[in-house]
Amino acid sequence: MSFTRQVEYGALPRAFHRAIEDTALATLEQGLSGWAVTDCAITLIQAGYSSPASVAADFRGRTPMVAMQALRAAGTRVYEPCQHFEAEIPGDVLSPVLSHLAGLGADVAQSADAGPAWLVTGQIPAALVPEFTRALPGLTRGEGSWWSQPAGDRPVRGPIPVRARTDGNPLDREEYLRFLARGRDGGLAR
What we know:
The C terminus is likely disordered. The protein is 35% helix and 25% strand. The chain folds into two domains: 93 residues, Ribosomal Protein S5, domain 2; 77 residues, 2-Layer Sandwich (Alpha-Beta Plaits), CATH 3.30.70.240. A four-stranded antiparallel beta sheet has the order 4-5-3-6, covered by helices on one side. A two-stranded parallel ribbon has the order 1-2. By secondary structure, the protein is α+β, with helices and mostly antiparallel strands.
């Protein structure tokens, strides 16, 4: 993540610049769906304030709404960690094993006859490895073997999982402004 500005430092008091930068980067920690945005560049292209009425807290409070609108307009993708796997499977149960892997969203790269068994390789979401390894003995009569290791990330398929927000949800202006008001008056909404 990076933050740059195309406005001069003198356009705002230094504390306002710092408030915008810190808050914009903090907003990326929860992104659109509650997941951290890890590959993003933010550029401040315009800024202004009303002296003496504006304070740094005003910029801290409004920056998340602007940043989230920009994220929504830009579009984001949620990625999930994956594991590369190798499985040795008896030939007579290859079809049910491949069906189970497909049902879990695995990408089977290859299945090759390796003598008395088949060697199946591919990639599977890391969160689903325990589910498959629990099913493997039943699918193979206890004769299957499994090896896996981290293999990077891939875009989530299907509905994007959403994590609960802790920042008052800057995507919903009214909810977010109520959240800010509660923070300033000790938890009492007005």
